[in-house]
Amino acid sequence: MASILNLPPIIARKVDVEVNLKNCTLRAGSTCVIGLYGLLRHPVWGADAEQFKPERWLDPATLPEHPSLYAYFSIGKRNCIGKLFSMMVMKVALVHIIRRYRVTGDINNVECEFDIVLKPIKGHHICLKART
Question: Where are the domains of the chain?
């Protein structure tokens, strides 16, 4: 599921209290911008973090310890209120698609633009082949 959501825009949050991190301090009242595009492609997710591999999320042993580590629905007190509903809808839809089709694609050549969400300029480049 999470591989589908690999291309979110940045998240900006106001820092309520001073936070001391390993290499810097975030002052109260400042704005912190998190670039999820790069964060979600960090090598901590594996050498193949940039590849579309939905199966990586099937093994509970390889999932993040804390659900906020993979922040595709944002994090904190202002995260997405539709997270649970949208995840359920995606799971049901994917079950129906994957049962009927073999799905392949190449996201390496997708050009995206920033809007309310990051979206492909020329649509999604996937191939559906009916299962026999």
Answer: 2-130
CA 99 to centroid of chain Cα atoms: 23
80 is in an annotated binding site: yes
User: In the structure encoding, which two tokens stand for residue 111, read together?
Assistant: 């050009």
Give backbone dihedrals phi and psi of 10, rounded to 5 degrees, phi first: -75, 160
Q: Are 111 and 122 in contact (CB under 8 A)?
A: yes
| Percent of the chain as helix, strand, coil, to the nearest 5 | 35, 20, 45
Structure tokens at 125: 């480049």
**84 is written with which tokens?**
């649970």
Across the chain, what does the average pLDDT equal?
A: 79
Residue appearing with tokens 């629905």: 73
Answer whether residue 39 shows pLDDT above 50.
yes
The CATH code that applies to domain 2-130 is: 1.10.630.10
Enter the pTM of the model: 0.41
Three-state DSSP state, 52: coil
Q: Which residue has the tokens 């390889």?
A: 62
Give the Cα separation of 6 and 70 in Å (integer): 10
